[in-house]
Structure formats: C-alpha cells, structure tokens
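ARCHIVE CARD
CATEGORY: sequence design from structure
SOURCE FIELD: tokenized fold
FIELD CONTENT:
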C-alpha cells in the first residue's frame, strides 16, 4: 500500500486499488459484478436503489457498494459469499417488483433489461404482494422522442442525474415524495435536449422508451454491428441494429477515448434518410428538362463523355467539389481521381469560401500533435476560437462541460459570440466578425513572443481581462486551444501561443469527413499526408505512387464557382455536397450549376441534384465498410450493417469506374488495395510548420464597416440537412430559429428579448424572434444557417455580409409566427 492506494479483500481475494475507488468498481476489477440499478460509472454515486448491498467485516449494518469507498484492510463479502448481502438484495428486489408491472413480453427493454436479469437470477418465482399494483396513464410524452411509462420506474435517478450532471439541461426531475415519487418534466419547459436519447439507453428498466423504436424489435431478432457516426467530426462509436434489412435504432457504444458512453440525438436518431422518399435509388441522366432513371452503364458513360468533351476545349475545364461526408478511403480515391484521371488540381472539400492562405495551414495538420478528448477533459484552461461546440460537435461540448464541472476549468471564448458556451464562459475575448486573430495576437504578445513574428502581431486589440487570460495560460495545467474551421487561418498564431504555453491544439471542423479530406489532400494545393503540390520533394513522393501531377495549384470553391458561372469551367463533379443549401453564396452556386454540366454523386435528392445532368447514387455509412477520421486525427473503422438499395455504389467505386472510362487505371480495385497504397504514402516525415520562423503572421481584416449589422451565421445541430430528412421525431426537438443581438444593439433598435424582428439583406427578409445575448459583440447579428427561408446566406445575395435588423410590423410578425 502507498499513500495513493489501498489494499482490501473482496470475496477472499486481495486487490490493491487507488484510494477513493468505490467498492463496486474494485469488485468489477476482480470480475465480480455486484447487482445495481442506480449506479453508472460516469454519474456521481447516489445510493438510490439499495440493490448493491455488501457485507463489510466488523460493521453492524450492510453497506452500499456504489457509495462506499474502499479502505485499507477492509474485508468485503458480496452476494457470492455473504448470506446477509444475498438476502438484502433479494429483499430490495422484492420491494422493487411490488408495483413494477410484469409486462416483459411487451416492454421494449425485454431481453436487455437489468431488472429482468436480476429477477431471474436473484428473485423469487412468486410474489407475496396481493394488493393492486400502482397504475398510471401511459405513455407520457417527456419529449417528441422520449416516452415515459411511470409504473415501470424504480426511481434510480439515472435520467435526472444525466440531465443535471452530464448534459446540463435539467428539464427532467423527480417530483413528489414517498410512494408518489415519479419522473416528470416542467410543464412550461419541455425536455428538449440534444442528448435526451441517452436517458433511454441508461434507463435500467424500460421506463423511458424511444418514440421511433417503440414496439419495433427485440435485441434477439436484430442484426447488431459497430459503426462510427458520420453526422459531425466527433467520431462517436455507435452500435447499429437492423431488422429485415432496415436500421431500427442506433445506440452509443462504449468508447472511453472518444464519446465515453454517450451520443447526441442527431447521431442516435438521424438515420431515417436511409429509407426516406428523397433517397437516390438508381442512376439518372437528364433528358430535356427532366431526370430519367438509367442503368449504371449509361449514366457512367454519360459522365465520362461529358468530361472528355470538356477537356477537349482545354485544361482547367473540369473541377471537383467533394463536400465533407466522405469516408477516408473515398476521400483518398477522389483526390487521386482529380489529379491523375482528370489532370486537375481544381478540387475542394470545403463548402465555405476560404482565405487563400488556408491551404498552407491545412497541409500542416496531418503531422501536428493534436489535442484529444482526454486533453480537453484534463485541461485547466480551454480556449475556444471560432467554434460553437454544442451546435457543431456535441460530444466535444460534453467533454468541455465535464472539465468545467470536475476540474473547474476556465473556459475562454475568442470570437464575436460565445453561443452554447455562454453559461460556462470564464472570459469572453469579444472580437468583430472574422477578427479572432486580433485577440489571439494580443494574447501572444502578452506571452512575450511578438518579437518572433512581425509587427503584424501587434494588433492593437485591448480587453480588460486580457492579462487574466495570459496568466491562466501560463499557470493553469495542460491548457488546450480548440480552433473551429471558421478560424482555420489563425492556427499559425495559435501554434506560436501553444509553443509559449505548452498548450495542446485541436482543429475542430464541423463535418465528419473534413479531417480525413485534409489527410487525403482533397483541396487545391494539398496532397496526401500533409504534402504540398508546390514542394518539389512532396511532388516526387506522390508522383512515385500516382504518376505525373498537375503543374500548378488549382482553384478553391469560390474560384471554381465563379469560373463555372462564367463558362470557363465546363463540368462540375460534385461528390456528396449540396452547394445550393451550403454555399456561402447560393446565387453564385445556382449560376454555376446552370452554366456547367453537373455530375452529382450523392445519397439523396437535394436542391443541387435538381440542377444535375447525371446523378450517381451512392451508399451510406451503414451500408459499407471503411474508416473515418475525427477531429483528433483518430482513424476508426466501421463496417456494413445493412445493404443499400440495389443500384447504389461506394463513392470510391464510382470514381474508379469513371477514371477507367477516361483511360486511367487508379491502381486499386478493392479497399485493401486502396488502403495499401494510401499507407505506403503515409504522413510526410517532416510535417510542414504552421508558421515558418521569421515569416510574417498576417491578421485578417475581417468584416468591413458599413450600414447595419455584420451577419454571423453557422448551422444549428438540427437543421434542414440531407442526413436528418425523414427523422420527424428528431426534428420536432430542433431549436426554433432566432436572431441573436447584443444588449446594446437591441436597446438601440427598441427590440425586447423574444420580440419578432425583421432581418433584411440584399437577398430578402426573414422574420424571427430576437434573443438578446450578453456574450455577443456589439455590431453583429447571429442567424442560424440552413434553418430559415430564405436561408442566412441567401439573405446576402452575394453582397456584403451585413443586414438590417428592425422590430417587426404586426403583419410581418404574424407571417413569421
């Protein structure tokens, strides 16, 4: 034994555990599973169910294993060796079953129910209870996707503790006392949480069930397999269960390094798109004004013919926009297809218009030692730049909140709006739109390393709490800096800051395939493994595997669309991207789509496929095998659980077939060959630095001053995206769109919190309720993207990112409502 460990005996076996370990955990290390209901390894102990009773030698009364810490020299006997413990557990179980309905044949939890298992193992085969059982009306709709059968509840408080401790939205609570105690919700605050599905999964008795899964299947008649969620960059491990070839539910899979035992509701319930009416089930080729079904041979030949015709008119006439939903293997295949089969570097995975310097920054990411979830959880200070975690990467939000709750971590938000982090923000370094670099430069200067850069670092930014933030980064253990994709170009400054403070850095994009796309070189100027097209040695490395590469750096998304709208690009090959919905300038996107021949390779019909000339349907994540890389840079495998529609293909297969018709063999014809080639290239041995020593560190000019308010916009977690279509129960819990204003801007316009307002840009007007937020910089208005009609980007019509916000007239308020 040491000061940090204790040695005890459990059922005659000695074990040494860290001081503070609960008896129930120590027993688990010996392979002894003490029966329990309320205990959960990620929730604070509460001792509510009294089922985990054990006998401790020398003590008069039994102890609860889930609330008792192991002590040195303690001798513990569980139900396996103690008559007292066994009888105590049997008695507790008998009391729990007094009012519990014995409806296992119709209960969704049947077959995977701890109460059912323990009743069979420890319970009596008959009941001594002769009175009527307690009954309630059922089910009670806790939310649109969570139903409650109150008579099944054993008051373990797992659900209420999760809501309070983990997700931080305690709208579900235990009401009343004694025999009347029951789970309930506040009448004026419905349980709308991005994480509500977790209370269904951790409920040990089937009291909480899923609206969508209720009475659908049993655990013994579903096909179950592991997968990785593809709805954001968190990379959550999930379990997919299917019956008769159709996905029935998705559950959080235990992965301590990533999502622990949790999942957001989008990842849990967002699979209805697999069978929605919008799903693409066969290839299509345009015939006049309509898209007509075709066989694969016809469609793929039409695509190859369009590309061949375009290339006859010169180089630079074909471009690829790939989106960010692709698996790692698909991203690599598309990257090689563009450079080798099409001979172009005109390729981009981003659906936003990026700064020209971003390609150099992205090339450094594959070799950068990245922050991890564990780093975030253990951090003393967390700096969040250009990122709204709950809306963009929800599981990361839970880890940040866990650090705040457990470690009293100091959360610093850099940017114009704190968003979902507002309740936990220690200091908000408010900046104007796209001006996060100014604040980071000031923090860097405070670290005394401005001399290492240029005068550009001296931004002139001032904030009353700047010194406190600098001291926290210096003094708090293990600081972490998380940079969202909107602030990618600040990574050079962040690297300098991390070098001075020892902070770990994480680049956190929103979409699931973004990091894999970077590793695959799926952007102009990038090559696989953090290589650059303009680096001679990098070119040699890749050309040894691929053959000749394009000689010059290609165009990014904005340049591609501009040139396509002008007729200079003849063919747009779109792979898993809905430009009309996601592009910062929808009008420009539509002009480009109208002018060019469009090949759409996608899962479902979208506003973009309506402009397509050739549509090629592909498989979804649950219908194929592959790997996915999350924001940490962690690559995780997933495998096929169900078959897709008969005529769909994997994305990598489509580009291999197209390349073959164009006269190019990409060199792989199955996933093993593809992975082997990718692994041979590997990551660049000496990663490109984010910031070259002595090079100038530039600071974006950000939004230019003008009339109205600068418009900030990014999507809510639940919006009008393709992958949430058909998930009606899920979308019923989506947040209502709103316009966020600072107190000063709201007061200047006579706008009260919750009042309807009109937001007007060059492209139209939308009427929404206002939300006055303290942690929003003056001069800016925030509006969710892809949640309104017209959407936020369409409001601007390609003009300056500024809008007018005024109190709505009564007529407009009625329309908005």
């Amino acid at each position: 034994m040491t000061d940090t460990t204790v040695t005890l005996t459990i059922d005659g076996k000695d074990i040494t555990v860290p001081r503070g370990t609960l008896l129930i955990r120590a027993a688990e290390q010996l392979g002894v599973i003490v029966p329990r209901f309320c205990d959960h390894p990620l929730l604070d102990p509460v001792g509510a169910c009294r089922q985990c009773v054990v006998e401790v030698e020398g003590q008069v009364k039994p102890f609860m294993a889930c609330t008792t810490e192991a002590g040195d020299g303690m001798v513990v006997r569980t139900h396996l060796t103690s008559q007292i413990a066994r009888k105590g557990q049997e008695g507790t179980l008998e009391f729990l079953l007094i009012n519990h309905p014995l409806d296992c044949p119709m209960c969704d939890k049947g077959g995977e129910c701890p109460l059912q298992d323990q009743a069979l193992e420890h319970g009596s085969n008959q009941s001594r209870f002769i009175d009527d059982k307690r009954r309630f009306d059922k089910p009670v709709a806790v939310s649109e996707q969570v139903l409650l059968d109150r008579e099944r509840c054993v008051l373990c408080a797992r659900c209420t503790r999760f809501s309070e401790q983990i997700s931080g939205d305690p709208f579900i609570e235990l009401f009343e006392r004694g025999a009347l105690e029951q789970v309930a919700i506040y009448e004026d605050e419905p349980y709308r949480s991005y994480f509500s599905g977790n209370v269904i999964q951790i409920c040990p008795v089937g009291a909480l069930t899923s609206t969508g899964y209720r009475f659908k299947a049993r655990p013994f008649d579903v096909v179950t397999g592991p997968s990785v969620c593809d709805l954001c960059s968190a990379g959550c491990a999930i379990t997919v269960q299917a019956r008769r070839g159709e996905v029935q539910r998705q559950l959080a899979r235990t992965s301590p390094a990533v999502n622990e035992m949790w999942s957001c509701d989008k990842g849990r319930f967002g699979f209805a798109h697999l069978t929605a009416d919008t799903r693409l089930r066969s290839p299509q080729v345009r015939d006049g004004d309509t898209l007509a079904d075709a066989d694969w041979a016809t469609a793929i030949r039409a695509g190859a013919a369009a590309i061949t015709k375009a290339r006859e008119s010169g180089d630079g006439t074909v471009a690829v926009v790939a989106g960010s939903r692709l698996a790692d293997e698909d991203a690599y295949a598309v990257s090689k297809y563009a450079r080798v089969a099409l001979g172009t570097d005109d390729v981009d995975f981003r659906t936003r218009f990026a700064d020209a310097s971003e390609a150099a920054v992205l090339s450094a990411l594959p070799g950068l030692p990245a922050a991890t979830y564990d780093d975030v959880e253990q951090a003393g200070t967390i700096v969040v730049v250009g990122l709204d975690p709950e809306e963009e990467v929800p599981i990361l939000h839970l880890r940040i909140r866990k650090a705040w709750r457990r470690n009293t971590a100091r959360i610093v938000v850099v940017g114009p709006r704190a968003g979902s982090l507002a309740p936990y923000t220690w200091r908000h370094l408010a900046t104007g739109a796209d001006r996060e670099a100014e604040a980071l430069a000031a923090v860097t200067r405070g670290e005394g390393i401005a001399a290492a850069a240029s005068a550009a670092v001296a931004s002139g930014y001032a904030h009353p709490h700047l010194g406190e933030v600098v001291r926290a980064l210096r003094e708090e253990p293990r600081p972490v800096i998380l940079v969202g994709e909107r602030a990618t170009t600040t990574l050079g400054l962040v690297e300098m800051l991390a070098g001075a403070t020892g902070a770990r850095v994480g680049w956190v994009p929103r979409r699931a395939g973004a990091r894999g796309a970077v590793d695959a070189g799926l952007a102009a100027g990038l090559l696989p493994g953090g290589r650059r097209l303009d680096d001679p040695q990098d070119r040699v490395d890749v050309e040894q595997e691929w053959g000749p590469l394009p000689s010059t750096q290609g165009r990014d998304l904005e340049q591609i669309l501009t040139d396509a709208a002008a007729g200079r690009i003849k063919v747009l090959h779109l792979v898993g991207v809905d430009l009309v919905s996601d592009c910062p300038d929808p009008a420009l996107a539509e002009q480009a789509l109208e002018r060019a021949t469009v090949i759409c390779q996608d899962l479902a019909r979208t506003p973009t496929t309506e402009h397509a000339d050739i549509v090629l349907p592909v498989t979804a994540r649950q219908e194929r095998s592959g790997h996915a890389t999350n924001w940490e840079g962690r690559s995780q495998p997933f495998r096929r659980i169900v078959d897709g529609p008969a005529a769909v293909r994997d994305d990598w297969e489509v580009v291999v077939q197209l390349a073959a018709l164009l006269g190019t063999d990409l060199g792989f014809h199955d996933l093993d060959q593809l992975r082997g080639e990718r692994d041979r290239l590997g990551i660049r041995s000496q990663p490109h630095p984010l910031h070259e020593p002595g090079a100038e560190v530039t600071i974006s000019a950000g939004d230019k001053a003008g009339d109205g308010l600068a418009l900030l916009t990014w999507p809510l977690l639940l919006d009008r995206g393709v992958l949430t279509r058909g998930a009606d129960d899920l979308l019923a819990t989506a947040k209502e769109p709103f316009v966020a204003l600072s107190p000063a801007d709201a007061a200047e316009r006579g706008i009260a919190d919750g009042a309807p307002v009109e937001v007007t840009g060059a492209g139209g007007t939308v009427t929404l309720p206002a939300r006055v937020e303290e942690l929003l910089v003056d001069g800016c208005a925030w509006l969710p993207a892809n949640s309104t009609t017209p959407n936020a980007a369409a409001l601007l019509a390609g003009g300056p990112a500024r809008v007018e916000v005024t109190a709505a007239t009564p007529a407009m308020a009625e329309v908005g409502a």
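CARD ANNOTATION: Residues 451-457 have pLDDT under 50 and may be disordered. The longest strand covers residues 764-772.
SHELF: design records, drawer C
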